[in-house]
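INFO  loader      accepted 1 record
INFO  loader      residues=127
INFO  predictor   begin
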Amino acid sequence: PYGIDAHADDVAVVAEALAPERPVLAGHSMGAFTAALASVRHPERFGPLLLVDGGVGFPAPTHLSPDELMTAVIGPAMDRLSMVFQDRTAYREFWQAHPSFADRWTPETEAYIQRDLVGTEPVMRSS
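INFO  predictor   done
INFO  writer      dumping tokens
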């Protein structure tokens, strides 16, 4: 058996085996949906929940046209995807300027953003 319910239950079993205390549960993209469900199905198993680029949906504003809604929801990501970076340093500096990373830059963050960058200098883009 597989599916989002099974994934959520599997996460709880792995957390129980590896983290005796209530760990932070983080999920990215589809993993955020899994993390959200795991935290609901097994609230005693997890501490704080961090959802990155996915997870819980929010009600859409009703006063926006479909085009305005798309711009509001995915506009910043689309803008970033259309940007060109001269080199890896420029891409790092772009991300380091983001308020979410202020004083929180780690080797793992560096590895993630560098994996995301594709192309060859001087025309590199976020994948």
